[in-house]
User: What shape does this take?
Amino acid sequence: MILIVDDKTENIFSLTNLLESKGFLVDSTSSGEEALRKVLRQKYALIILDVQMPIMNGFEVAEALGSFSLTRDIPIIFLSAINIDKKYITKGYNSGAVDYLTKPVDPDILLLKVKVFYRLYEQNLQLVEAERKLKREIEIRKLAQIELKDRVQYLHTILESLPQITFKAASNGVITFVNNHWYKYSKSAQDFPEHHPSFTPIWSRFRECIEGKSALEYEVKIKNLESGLFRYHLLRIIPIVDNNLLKKWVGTFTDIEDQKQIEHKKDEFLTIASHELKTPLTSIKGYIQLLDRISNEFENKNVSNLVTRAQNQVLKLESLISDLLDVSKINNGRLLMNMDYFNLEDLIKNVIYTIEQIHHDSSIKIERSGDLFDIQVYGDVIRVEQVFINFLTNAFKYSPGTDIIYVRTKYEGNTVSIEVEDFGIGIPKEKQNHVFNKFYRVKETSVSFQGLGIGLYICSEIIKQHNGTYGIKNKSGKGTIVYFTLPIN
Ligand code: ADP
Assistant: This one.
């Protein structure tokens, strides 16, 4: 809006008409004092100010406007009829005018000037708005920086308070932060602790992860600087990704030396116990066989019934002990395979027949479908049999009250796949990855079903030694599908 200040109403009238005809919003007053009051209440883009006015002349009004910060920047065009003397023009400029016109005013010139000042005013407004936005942006950034700093500080405090050795590294692997525990194992914040010579250097394992942008889990022995002894640690390094961009790495070394020692002692105990149990069991088996023969001679049905039951229990015990022995062999790296060619179809038929005989009184039947494997496969026939028997035994054990187990066989490229599907209690999805681990049993069902949780672990080791694969397949509805594959050439 433009403010016209002139004591002559006819001047105000003609100027207002002129400006309004060009689309400007116009306000007016006939006194300098009223003009000062108006500028404090309303924002004006330009003031057209008459110099000759009673009480307060135009120069005084302009000086007063110049003293308020709110009004200092409003452009003023002076209009004067008489003071055309150079010294008045100078005075006008000194008191804040940005232009000076003498009456009679040429309307075209006045309009040109008004347009220029108006545009300047608008540009000024835009600049002020841009500056305001910029300032706000700077403030937001400053706040974000402070928040980021706080977060980094918070992360460092957490890392510092952990009992583990912790560190952070830039995306290229350069270590940027280590906590205090680090210095028990390394003298420098830039170098990883010294590893035992029998392990792959930590750096090269980390480098592989950086290339693959993947997390690292590595059990490695590192040297304690004070004792000079190497202790087992689990090193975990995870990538921190933001907007699909690898930002940094966060790593921990967790001391697992005590755990490893206990595990080692348990393995030793297993080896000794299973060996020691085997000898008396062999004798018991012999005595029961003798008893069986004697009871047959006397044709006492009750006794021979009891002997058969005892024999079954001894067989179960024998199978448990041989599983335990297998585990200790795996622990000691001595689960050796007797490799030779064998007919896979014969193996499948024999195992299904045997399992059907064992479970002849069960309501569950086995249904085989798929490809016939009438081929020679290279492997340990007894161990492969053990895997298939284990899968089928589990399928019977964990499916009480059901009536069918499917065995599906299929050629898949250079491999053969054998899968066993049951409709029993199933394995919760989040536990399926664990059932092939040593001594793992699904907690919810471990009370109702007997077992040691080592059958599938042994199977996994056997399949690995045959370069095969194994796992649990996704399944809709109740039950489990477990499978293994073997290479055929
Ligand atoms: P276990 O002697 O306990 O059966 P395994 O190693 O054979 O040991 O199996 C490990 C665990 O996997 C079992 O304890 C059981 O919880 C689960 N499991 C294996 N097979 C099945 C199946 N067919 N149905 C449901 N759960 C199964």
Remarks:
- Residues 107-161 form the longest helix (55 residues).
- The longest strand covers residues 230-242.
- Residues 59 and 438 are 98 Å apart (CA to CA).
